[in-house]
Each structure stands twice: as structure tokens, then as C-alpha cells.
């Protein structure tokens, strides 16, 4: 009885088709599960990438001879550093320094971009008011970091600000140039007017001479003339008296000589 119950029944063609269909459905389900898993991994990876946003730190103090390479070397230890911008000194300050004999190019302020804003926040909080140089032999050991993390500040804002400052500087230069041109034109016009007035005055003097007009003397000039006339008269009288005295003396000498 046991042998008869264990007999194998041969599969019909219909059963074979059903078995093939079930196997194909299983393979499709497995492939769909694999694709869903890959998409979930990709989405999670993209979310991680989206979470990483850059952060910018503001540097309020830049010591002399401090360059962008020093910033990168000192801050790259704490995190990945991206773009760096240091604001140079103004031109008139550099001209004064050149006249004094120093050609060093210094910076006033700076901005540093970190790849991750979380790292930027930690760096700004930990390094603020700490010495720049770790070693005592470094030239920046006695200079302190002056850092501040800029919330919701992006590099495009900095570029826009720099472009705005450049436009303002250009407008100021144009206004100064136009004002200088106006002043020079006004000066040249006044010079031409003075030349014309001087020419007219010269022509008026020639005409007065041709008319024969004589200006009346002032009281001071009249008094001077009168004083000169009185002096001349007094001198003439003195000369006459002297001549008379000389003639009288000659007559007396003749008289006394004849008596003897």
C-alpha cells in the first residue's frame, strides 16, 4: 500500500505553464524589490547631500602681512575651506604708505566659506578671541581671531555687495571729475572776461588822452604845490638878500680903502 501511494504522477502541459508563470512572477517581484531598495538608497543619499550647506565666517581683523594662504592653512585643519576673499586697503592709504616708503599690501576684513555650515558655526564659536598662531615663534601668535558666523548669508550676497561698492566708487569718481571740469571751465571763462575788460580799459585810456581831459588835483596835491611854491619864494628871497649883503660889503671895503 505504501508503494502504491508514493507513485509519481506525470505533469500535464497545463501544469507546466502554470509553474512557469509563477516563477516569472517571483522574478519580477524580486527585481521590483531591488529597484525600490536602490531608489530608497539614492533618495537618502540625495537628502544627505541636500542637508550639507555652505557657511560663511566674517573676519573683522586682518593683521599685517596676513594673506589668503595663511587663512587656508590655519582654518583647513578644522574643516574643508572653500572660497576666501580679503578686502584690500583703500588706494589713498596705500599711496600714503608708498610715500612713507613701505610697499606692503595689507587687508582690512575678510570672508571665509566652509563647505558645511555646521563646521563654520563651531569654528566661529571656538576660535573667536583666541590667538591665530599656535606656536609662539609664529608671527601671528599675538594676534587674535575676530570671527563671526553670518546666518543666512551666501557668497552671492558678498559678490552683490562688492559690485554695489564698485559702482558707488565709480559714480563718486565721475562726480569728482565733472566737478573739476566745471571749476576749470569757470576759471577759463573768468580769465577770458578779464582779458576783455583789460582790452576795453586800454581803449578807454587812449580815448581820454585824445579828448585832452585833465583831472583836477586833490587838496593834498594842491597843498604840496603851495608849500613847494613858498619854499621856492623863500629861497629866492634869501638868495637876493645874500647878494645884497655881498654888494654892500664890497662897497664898504672900497670906501674904507679910499679913506686910508
UniProtKB/TrEMBL annotation:
Keyword RNA-binding: yes
Keywords, sorted A to Z: Nucleus, RNA-binding
Signal peptide range: none
Compartments where located: Nucleus, Nucleolus
Primary location class: nucleus
Membership in a protein family: Belongs to the ESF2/ABP1 family.
Protein name according to UniProt: Activator of basal transcription 1
Protein's organism: Salvator merianae
Amino acid at each position: 500500500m505504501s508503494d502504491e501511494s508514493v507513485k509519481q504522477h506525470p505533469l500535464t502541459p497545463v501544469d507546466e505553464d502554470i509553474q512557469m508563470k509563477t516563477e516569472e512572477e517571483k522574478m519580477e517581484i524580486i527585481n521590483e524589490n531591488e529597484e525600490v531598495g536602490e531608489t530608497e538608497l539614492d533618495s537618502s543619499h540625495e537628502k544627505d547631500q541636500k542637508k550639507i550647506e555652505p557657511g560663511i565666517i566674517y573676519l573683522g581683523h586682518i593683521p599685517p602681512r596676513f594673506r589668503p594662504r595663511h587663512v587656508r592653512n590655519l582654518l583647513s585643519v578644522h574643516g574643508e575651506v572653500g572660497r576666501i576673499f580679503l578686502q584690500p586697503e583703500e588706494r589713498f592709504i596705500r599711496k600714503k604708505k608708498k610715500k612713507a616708503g613701505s610697499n606692503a599690501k595689507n587687508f582690512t576684513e575678510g570672508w571665509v566659506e566652509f563647505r558645511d555650515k555646521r563646521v563654520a558655526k563651531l569654528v566661529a564659536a571656538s576660535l573667536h578671541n583666541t590667538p591665530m598662531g599656535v606656536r609662539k615663534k609664529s608671527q601671528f601668535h599675538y594676534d587674535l581671531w575676530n570671527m563671526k558666523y553670518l546666518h543666512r548669508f551666501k557668497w552671492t550676497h558678498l559678490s552683490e555687495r562688492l559690485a554695489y561698492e564698485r559702482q558707488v566708487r565709480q559714480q563718486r569718481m565721475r562726480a569728482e571729475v565733472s566737478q573739476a571740469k566745471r571749476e576749470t571751465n569757470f576759471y577759463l571763462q573768468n580769465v577770458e572776461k578779464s582779458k576783455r575788460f583789460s582790452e576795453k580799459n586800454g581803449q578807454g585810456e587812449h580815448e581820454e588822452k585824445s579828448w585832452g581831459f585833465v583831472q583836477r588835483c586833490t587838496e593834498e596835491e594842491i597843498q604840496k604845490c603851495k608849500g613847494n611854491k613858498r619854499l621856492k619864494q623863500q629861497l629866492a628871497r634869501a638868495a637876493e638878500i645874500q647878494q645884497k649883503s655881498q654888494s654892500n660889503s664890497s662897497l664898504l671895503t672900497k670906501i674904507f680903502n679910499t679913506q686910508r
